Amino acid sequence: MKQRLQKCIAAAGLCSRRTAEAWIEAGRVRVNGRVAALGESADADTDEITVDGEPLSRPQQKCYLMLNKPRGFVCTMSDEKGRPTVAELVKGCGARVVPVGRLDYDSEGLLLLTNDGEWLQRFLHPKYEIDKVYRVSVTGAVENAAEALSALRELDGEPIRPARVKALRTGQGRAELEITIHEGKNRQIRRMCAAVGLRVTRLRRIAEHHIRLGSLPVGKWRMLTADEIGACGKKQS
């Protein structure tokens, strides 16, 4: 059955539809040997669809999992610098999955991975405003740190939505904060902390939407439950 090319690519688990559209516009996608055009349709069962010269695989069984990412791993499936990747930690899951968003090299905690491009897109698209909750250990100007972070409306000249910040522990130039954001700009929390005189010593994501890390050991992964998978797209309360 013919369907939009970007949907074929997303169904194969390579990326979201939006990313697939960018690949098509960049000339990276071919159908039956010719460069594809945005808006084109194809049949994944009868047409030869390639991305960067590699044939599109048949749609896989949908796979959704969470990983408790340790520090010192990059959120890519391969790394040109030879650094450890999260792909090494989930290689036993039985499917080719990709990260839903990112945690930087020095950050840890909840990382979702999937081969469902539509589900991935719902997490990444700004309109869904998915809450991401972090536990952050800081040093420096900790007095009134929660208030200062909550009041930030601009970061390096770029407007940001207000974060929800709670001080969990404070004392002796150190504090532990719970910070909730949903924009997820590059290294946003570290940059926010630096802007109010704080240095991050540990950053751990503990929840996204209704999905919580819980007691999953560091470096381990588990499949999401049906309720967790279905929670994406439901309004958060």
What does this structure look like?
- It is a single chain.
- The chain is α+β, with helices and mostly antiparallel strands and 237 residues long.
- It has helices spanning 5-11, 17-25, 86-89, 117-124, 145-150, 188-195, 226-231; strands spanning 2-4, 29-31, 34-35, 41-43, 49-51, 54-55, 64-69, 98-99, 108-114, 132-140, 154-155, 158-159, 164-171, 174-181, 198-208, 211-212, 221-223.
- The strands form four sheets. Strands 7, 8, 9, 10, 13, 14, 15, 16 and 17 form a nine-stranded mixed β-sheet that branches. A four-stranded antiparallel β-sheet has the order 3-2-5-6. Strands 1-4 form a two-stranded antiparallel ribbon.
- Strand 13 and strand 14 form a beta hairpin.
- It starts with a strand and ends in a 6-residue tail after the last helix.
- The model has no long low-confidence stretch (mean pLDDT 90).
Name the shape in a single word.
elongated
Question: Helix count?
Answer: 7
> Helix and strand succession?
EHHEEEEEEHEEHEHEEEEHEEEH
Estimate the helix proportion, in percent: 10-25%
- Average pLDDT works out at 90
| Tally of DSSP β-strands | 17
> What percent of residues are in strands?
25-35%
Structural class based on helices, strands and sheet pairing: alpha+beta
User: Uncertain runs with pLDDT below 50, 5 residues or more?
Assistant: none
Largest sheet: 9 strands, mixed
Measure the end-to-end span: 39 Å
Radius of gyration: 20 Å
